[in-house]
């Protein structure tokens, strides 16, 4: 469930200004919602990932330090990290390999 007072990722995606451009109506509602963010700073940045089920249950929340060359690369690396975690393939540099376990259990149950 989403934290009290905070919308689920699904609600955020559903309320976005152009959800049907990026997600056609027939494919808009998915089993998992992945939100990523990458940041760049000269002294080092970071990558962040939040993954929730369609019901709003958080199955992964991860942030790791990174040293990207610019903000675009940081955003791309964060997206790649989010997809890897969702698939259950946490990179070796992530200290929390169990972050993907709830996703694997949910996927296996289907």
Automatic annotation (TrEMBL):
GO MF entries: nucleic acid binding
Organism whose genome encodes this protein: Halococcus saccharolyticus DSM 5350
Region feature Disordered, mapped onto this chain: 1-26, 87-110
Name of protein: Uncharacterized protein
Alphabetical list of InterPro entries matching this protein: RNaseH-like_sf, RNaseH_sf
Protein origin, superkingdom: Archaea
Signal peptide start and end residues: none
């Amino acid at each position: 469930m989403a934290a009290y007072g905070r919308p689920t990722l699904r609600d955020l995606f559903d309320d976005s200004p152009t959800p049907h451009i990026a997600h056609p109506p027939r494919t808009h509602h998915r089993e998992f919602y992945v939100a990523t963010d990458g940041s760049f700073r000269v002294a080092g940045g970071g990558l962040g990932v939040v993954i929730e089920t369609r019901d709003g249950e958080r199955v992964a929340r991860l942030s790791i330090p990174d040293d990207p060359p610019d903000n675009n690369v940081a955003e791309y690396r964060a997206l790649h990290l989010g997809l890897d975690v969702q698939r259950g393939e946490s990179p070796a540099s992530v200290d929390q390999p169990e972050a993907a376990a709830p996703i694997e259990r949910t996927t296996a149950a289907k």
